[in-house]
Amino acid sequence: AQSVTQLDSHVSVSEGTPVLLRCNYSSSYSPSLFWYVQHPNKGLQLLLKYTSAATLVKGINGFEAEFKKSETSFHLTKPSAHMSDAAEYFCVVSVIQETSGSRLTFGEGTQLTVNP
Amino acid sequence: DGGITQSPKYLFRKEGQNVTLSCEQNLNHDAMYWYRQDPGQGLRLIYYSQIVNDFQKGDIAEGYSVSREKKESFPLTVTSAQKNPTAFYLCASSIPWAGSSYNEQFFGPGTRLTVL
After folding, report:
1. What are the φ and ψ backbone dihedral angles of B19, each rounded to 5 degrees?
2. What separation in angstroms does the CA of B58 have from each of A28, A90, B63, B90?
3. For residue range A24-63, what is the model confidence (pLDDT) as tens digits?
4. Which residues, 6+ apart, have CB-to-CB distance to B92 below 8 Å?
5. Of residues A31, A100, A109, nearest to B56 (C-beta)
6. A-to-B residue pairs, Cβ atoms closer than 8 angstroms
């Protein structure tokens, strides 16, 4: 079984300062990991994904994440926050099920607030 | 433009009524999914379908039903048996898992269902 823990339900930063959203995962198999972003009353948009090709993954809008197997972490970072980054962020793990294909397990989300 | 559409955007239901949420995709994806989102709980899987005319229950299927008669369509019916249906519902699609867990899911804009 797999699980995802997002360590902060809310993160507040000032515009122009770094962003760090923390995620730890648990998986019996080699996982794929994703970060999605959701703006209010919208669907989810993929920011980036880890597929074992490289441990440092670059995504859209200046976000990146580093896969650390020893720490079972996949933290999301951005050097400088913009007001438009204010949204909810979900860390997601995907593992193949024996008879039913791949399944996504979502973290509970981190609400990012960016202050002017 | 390729994508996933959900309708309606907002839906109001009286207690005891069944309602059907629409999900259509023109991405030529075989796999489709329905999720329910409640505040602070992330996304939970209701039903999914890997191929036309086949679907499986997710983690919270009670009180819901689906059909998959066409590749591009995966409607969700919320029945009167669902005790607490007020939530935000998201539909997603992906290419078949084909032995890989790397395939991200693409999400529609969501339907907000409110029971009066």
Report:
1. -135, 150
2. 20, 19, 12, 14
3. 998 777 788 999 999 988 899 999 999 877 889 999 999 9
4. A44, B4, B32, B33, B34, B35, B105, B106, B107, B108
5. A100
6. 63
